[in-house]
Amino acid sequence: MNQEFSRDGWAVILGGSSGFGLATAQKLAQSGMSICIVHRDRRGAMSRIQPEFEKIRGAGTSLLTFNADALNPQKRDEILDELASAMGSEGRVRVLLHSIAFGNLKLIAPERPAERDALQALAERLGVEADALARAADDLFESGSDALHTLASAPQYPDRYIDEDDLARTIHSMGTSILGWAQVLIERGLFADDARIFGLTSEGNEVAWKGYAAVAAAKVALESIARSMAVELAPYGIRTNVIQAGVTDTAALQAIPGSAHLKAQARSRNPFGRLTTPRDVANVIELLARPEAGWINGEVIRVDGGEHVSGLSR
Q1: What is the mean pLDDT of residues 1-30?
Q2: Is 80 exceeded by the pLDDT of residue 187?
Q3: Which residues, 6+ apart, have CB-to-CB distance to 298 below 8 Å?
Q4: How far is residue 217's CA from residue 224's CA, in Å, rounded to a whole number?
Q5: For a FRET experiment, which of 16, 23, 103, 306 has its CA 20 to 30 Å from that of 251?
């Protein structure tokens, strides 16, 4: 094990049973940091999750896990009581990662039917039935022919539409709830003198993906509050940054209608021809948690292999 960190340094990871949170927990544990994971999963999912937690224990560091609602203030206090006891007098929170993926994925309004003019024109030029061509395009797209995403059938969205309550819940869970955890950790004196807070955002903070409006609003809110935290928490020795990952095949992405099209577009656009992985993001968080990265504060850091700046498909 590469001991970059002391076991007295702890990472608190909100949403740590899969995706970015789990990958970061495993990476930081391999570097010597002790881990506290808060997650919310059904009992049936634990057969998948427990072996991943055992990998963290196998790194030789301490691990606390709580299957609880990280958005519940009472549960948060109970978790931090147990964490403080486990850390003892010498332990401190070195990293707080907000990786909660509990948001609303509804459209704003009903879609109007769109004509498939390009497919119809191609069918006529080839002298084949448009329906047969559409089936062939869908089959090949589902088999991994990303370049056909413009000819494949459009994603199907549920007939439910976002309302103000949906928006408010998503903004809190995936955005502003990062602040409450930071404030309580400060009040309890649990942060290390050189601590890091990380949030996670996506390209949906700037471009519109259908069904992503509420999550996009949450990500923009998170970025905004993280900037303020970077300024106001600096006197406490805390650095706050946001990681903007490229399109990553996580459970959260798979829940988005049209995720297959998003992945195809990302692979076509990415200079390296692949999606971002949770491990890619975890590696960068581990680097930013090191003392040498202490002068990075208040940034949105892209971890996408150049996907965001690439203007052309390969």
Answers
A1: 92
A2: yes
A3: 226, 227, 230, 231, 240, 241
A4: 11
A5: 306
